[in-house]
Amino acid sequence: MSHIPRILQDARIIAIVGLSDKPERASHQVAEYLIGHGYRVVPVNPALAGQDVLGQRAFATLTEAASALAPQRIDIVDVFRKSEDIVPIAQEAVAIAAGCLWLQLDVVNEEAAAIARAAGLEVVMDHCTKIEHRNLAVTA
Fold it and tell me: Is residue 55 exposed (0-12), middle (13-18) or buried (19+ Cβ within 10 Å)?
């Protein structure tokens, strides 16, 4: 996927859907890594809305996050949810005009990908932002 390096290099704001406040969870570890590498991470998790996770205010939905960030745009919607839960997230990513729908390792949903691509979003499935970023740093 040759577009992954460009997506990560161009991105500044990454909304992480399903971000956990538990340090042992992959979503938390990925978010911590991304923050440590200069990205602004926006937690999206209805159970944590209004709370701070890794020093960032959490939002219940992508729509709420996008409204709070306006006029800045969410570059990547990084999703830590089950494959069958992705279609509504893809629709919301389209509605907020995100740049990319990124589905984490083992998350694949072709219907959601088609929705996002049809609206002009880039799509990455079954890849980890942390691993891909680390691979970038190694090859740079």
Answer: exposed
